[in-house]
Each structure stands twice: as structure tokens, then as C-alpha cells.
Amino acid sequence: MSTSDLSVKVGELTFANPIMPASGTFSEDLSDVFDLDVLGAHVLKTIMHGKRAGNPTPRVCDLQGGMLNAIGIPSKGIDDFRDRMLPYWSDYKAPLVVSISAHSMDEFARLAAEVSLPGVAAIEANISCPNIEADGNAFAMRPDTTAEVMRRLRAETDLPLWAKLTPNTGEPVAVALAAEAEGADAIVTANTALGMSIDVRTRQPRLGNVMGGMSGPAVKPIALRMTYQCAHACRVPVIGCGGIATLDDVLEFLIAGAAAVQVGTATFQSPTVMARLIAELSDWMQAQGVTSLGEIIGSVQIPGGEAA
Amino acid sequence: MTLIPSILSVPPSPGVTARCAEARAIVLSNMPVNGEYRLLTLDAPAEVLDCAPGQFFQLLCPVPEGEHPFLRRPMSIYGYDAHAEQLQFLYKIAGAGTRGLATLRAGDTLNVLGPLGQGFTMPDAWQNLMLVARGVGLATLAPLARMAQQQGRSLTAICSARSPELAMSVDLFRSYGAEVIVVHDEDGSSEVPALEALIEARIAAGSVDAFYTCGSRRLLTMLQRLGQKHGIPGEIAMEQQMACGLGMCQACVRPFREGNEVVHRRVCREGPVFPISEAIA
């Protein structure tokens, strides 16, 4: 049995280990494959206030080293969350993180208030989904809209509030600092990168929505770079997310400064991957004589000093 | 990819009976069946062999030279035998995933996830069954023939193909006691009007309680028409592009009629088998 301490702190929350699912790649359906209580936290698929059908099919396509998706956040709305999902997830020990999104600031703020219920450990503000506005537009594309939406959300909830950023912005550090300044308790780097794929035979886009979010190992260097940038710039913890599939991927993000990591697309390839990563991380810590992940987090060595 | 044991300490969601595992299987054989199809036979652990006809697996296909399939590929179960610890898939090479599958040799390993989804049902009132399918769709219906024999039902299998020699599973259906009727494009017997007349004659003779079909939009529309006219129920196995196969990602939805509403259902989770009357072609 392992004696390594895999626990991590993300702001005021303590997780038994740093492995949690990325929103949109996780649901109660995964309980058919392994005991979901082994996870550090549970992060649900984004909820929007009303019912939504989502995007036309095809909603996914294969890429080299990853995939594109344009699911479009089909949502059963806040009532289904409160009446059905919350009681289900409350039976688990792992803390519950609820991802929310909205088209307007008013609706976003209202939803933040409505999901602030007993049994919810934190709110992840999905201000970065590329699939719900035209051309991938989202609040987290710019520091000013990020600041405004985070200020509105902060006013509505006392729960820990995480801001999930987008790799599609040209100014990730300014966006992260804007979120932090308006009360974000953690930064999640990052959501999917806006992409496109065309079937050359039919000359049609391979997604019903034309464009979609790219994920998987191919986006890992981008997410890792953002994690490093934000961990250096921000005082609040950063949660790494993007292409994580192996133990080395987990360690890379922790070394870059992530306090915890989210695993998404890898679960589609191997639904047991998160359970396996937790076991592998524990074995690795024992083999390396690492007693706490605090020794690893942010331990990146930049030759000749820090890069800008 | 290493195999870790599945832990099932959590009861499945209400109304959902799916139960599956990610497991490593070993290839026993991977042989061409005719000019178009190949049969993959795997040695698979018992934990993935509690299957029902109509269920499917998600296969992590090998990477063929010059191509890069990333997602798993859903594949209907062609045969399963928990005693012999064997699992079979019948496939047609159509894209990067199936080209990868074709590279497998005896002794190779293949990561499989399953069994997934809801299979076919066979209520007691359905004594005289008619199965109508075409091409590789017949592979999906093959395990149904065994189920029909085990439950003492009479089965007529109408197997459609481009030419008579390409009609799949004919011998298999006969071995389970089914009456087999082959229809094909060369003599026009597979055309909807000819097929519909053939089925109408069977219905007139009073020998059809339920239909089973798979995939084809043309056949679905025809069976919906016949079903509505004569009050005959039935089930269809449907396809959609998938990512996770478990119900998490919501990629594989299709529209269905539910009363006066049109609702989305996940092919991987609520399906792949649905009532013919609710399906939308």
C-alpha cells in the first residue's frame, strides 16, 4: 500500500489527489468502468440555465493526435441539475465542481447564484467554450469582458470560483490577471482551441458546426505554456488542462506550476486512464522518495534564470 | 495501454443496465470472409462477455501506416461466447480504423471497451420474428438469431446484398433454425417495392409479429410504413459518429419521436437499439 501523500490544495479546498476530469468528458456513465470516488474531484459537464439541444451532428471528428468537438453544450437546465444530478453526486466523497456558462452576463450571474447549493464545492466558470458563440467568441477572449463577467459572478456566490480560460486569446496572462483581480480563486488552463477540418472528398466541414474545439495530445504544449505563464503571473492556483494522458504529462503540468490537473480527451481513448494515473503517480512518488506534491509543483528549472 | 481491473462499487444510473470494462483481448484470427468482409476473432476476458445481441464494443484500433485514427471505433458484436472466452466482429474495411483492424495478426493484442449500450428485446408477444437487413448490418443482427432459437421463436431472415454471394450470415442464420430469404440488386429483388410485396405476403399469411432491422434508412422507412399499416412493432440498431461510447460526451445523438415531441437520444447509451416507430430515418 502506498504511503505517499497525493493530496493537493487548490485555494481553500483540499483534494485527495491532483487528478480530476475536464468538464465535458465526464458523467455518471463513467461509474460503469471504475469507482469514481478515487478521483481528486468531480467536474461536471457545463450546465446552462435552460434546456438546450446542442449542435447539429457530426459533433466530433478524429485528428492526428487529437480530436475536434462541437457538441454545443446540450443542457437539461438548472432544474435537472438541482433535482437529479446534485443528489446523485452528493453520495460521493470527492468534492463536486459545477461548471456553468451562459450567453449573457445577467444569465451567468443568475446561474452562479442558483447552483450555489450545499454539496457543491466549487464553481468552474466556463467563460471559454468555443462552440456556443459564432467564430469561437467567448468572455475569456479579452481581459475587459473577463473582468466584467467574473465581477458579476463573484457578487453572486461565496463558493470557490474558478475561471476556465481559452487558448484562443492572444493575451492569456492579462485575461488570467483580470480574472484574479475580480475574485477568481483559481485559473484553469485551458479549454479547447478553435479548429476546423474538411473532408476533401465531399468538400464539407467534418463538423456540423463547421468549427469546433481541438483537444488531445496535440494541444498539450499550448496548454502547458499557458499553465506556466499563468502560474508565474498569478497568486491564485492554476489547474492544468489540455492533452494530459500519461504520468509524464501530469508531472510536466505540476512542474510548470499547476496545483492540480484535469484529464479530458484521454478518457475517450481509455476510460480507465484517470484511475491509472493516480496509481502511477503514487508509485512514482514512492520510487522517487517524494513525500508531498509540494516538492514538485512549480519546480521547473529554467537554465540561466526565469524566462519572461 | 495497461489493463486495470474495473471496480463497480457504484450502482448504475436508474433505467440503465450497461455494464462494461476496458480490457485487453488477444487476436485468435483475422480472416477475409468474402471479397468485402473480414472476421476478427478475439480471446477476451469473461468480464467483457456478458453481452446481449445488439450491443457493441469500442475498439482502440491499431494505427495503419500513414494514418492516425485517434478515437475508438464502435463495432457491433457479431458473436460472443463466455464459455470459450471468445468475441467476434465482422467488419468491412471502410476507413482508417478498419484499415488498422485489418493489420491485426494472431497473437496481437487489442484494447476493447464493452459491452456497451442497450441490446435487442424479445417480448413474449413476439413469437414470429422477421429480420430485414443489408450488407454489414446483417452482422449486427447475427446474435439475434441465436437468441430467437434459445427462446423458441420462429425467425425469418431477409438478407439483402448487392449480389447473392455477398449476402452475409446466411449459413449462420440457417444454423440457428431461421428461414433465410436472400434478395439482391442483380435481379432487383432487393428494391423496396419487391421487398415490400414479399413482406406484405408474409404478413397476409399471418406470420409476422415483430421486425428487427439495422442501419439502412430505406429499410427503416419501409418497415415504419408496414408497421404502422399492420400494427407490427419492431426494433432497429442505429449508428452515429461516437467519441466516448459511454454516454459522457453526447456526440452521438440522433432525433427520435416521443409523443408529439422530437427528442435527442444518445446512440451509445439509450441505444444503439431503438423502437422502429420512434426512429427518424
Automatic annotation (TrEMBL), chain A:
UniProt KW tRNA-binding keyword: no
Cross-referenced InterPro entries: Aldolase_TIM, DHO_dehydrogenase, DHOD_1B, Dihydroorotate_DH_1, Dihydroorotate_DH_1_2, Dihydroorotate_DH_cat, Dihydroorotate_DH_CS, Dihydroorotate_DH_I
Gene Ontology molecular function terms on file: dihydroorotate dehydrogenase activity
Binding annotation for substrate: 45, 69-73, 126, 191-192
Keywords (A to Z) from UniProt: Cytoplasm, Flavoprotein, FMN, Oxidoreductase, Pyrimidine biosynthesis
Binding site for FMN: 23, 45-46, 126, 164, 216, 242-243, 264-265
Cellular component GO terms held in the UniProt record: cytoplasm
Annotated Dihydroorotate dehydrogenase catalytic domain residues: 6-285
Enzyme class: oxidoreductase
Annotated compartments: Cytoplasm
Needed cofactors: FMN
Pathway assigned in UniProt: Pyrimidine metabolism; UMP biosynthesis via de novo pathway
Chief subcellular location: cytoplasm
PANTHER family, A to Z: DIHYDROOROTATE DEHYDROGENASE (FUMARATE), DIHYDROOROTATE DEHYDROGENASE (QUINONE), MITOCHONDRIAL-RELATED
NCBIfam families linked: PRK07259.1, pyrD_sub1_fam
Family membership noted in the UniProt record: Belongs to the dihydroorotate dehydrogenase family. Type 1 subfamily.
Function: Catalyzes the conversion of dihydroorotate to orotate.
HAMAP family found in the cross-reference section: DHO_dh_type1
Protein name according to UniProt: Dihydroorotate dehydrogenase
Provenance organism: Pseudooceanicola marinus
Gene behind this protein: pyrD_2
UniProtKB/TrEMBL annotation, chain B:
The protein, known as: Dihydroorotate dehydrogenase B (NAD(+)), electron transfer subunit
Co-factor binding comment: Binds 1 [2Fe-2S] cluster per subunit.
Binding site for FAD: 73-76, 97-98
Family from the record: Belongs to the PyrK family.
Gene3D superfamilies from the UniProt entry: Dihydroorotate dehydrogenase, electron transfer subunit, Nucleotide-binding domain of ferredoxin-NADP reductase (FNR) module, Translation factors
Keyword Flavoprotein tagged: yes
GO BP: pyrimidine nucleotide biosynthetic process
FAD-binding FR-type domain: residues covered: 13-122
Keywords: 2Fe-2S, Electron transport, FAD, Flavoprotein, Iron, Iron-sulfur, Metal-binding, Transport
Cofactors: [2Fe-2S] cluster; FAD
Binding site for [2Fe-2S] cluster: 244, 249, 252, 268
GO terms, molecular function: 2 iron, 2 sulfur cluster binding; flavin adenine dinucleotide binding; metal ion binding; oxidoreductase activity
InterPro entries assigned: Cyt_c3_hydrogenase_gsu, Dihydroorotate_DH_ele_sf, Dihydroorotate_DH_Fe-S-bd, FAD-bd_FR_type, FNR_nucleotide-bd, PyrK_electron_transfer, Riboflavin_synthase-like_b-brl
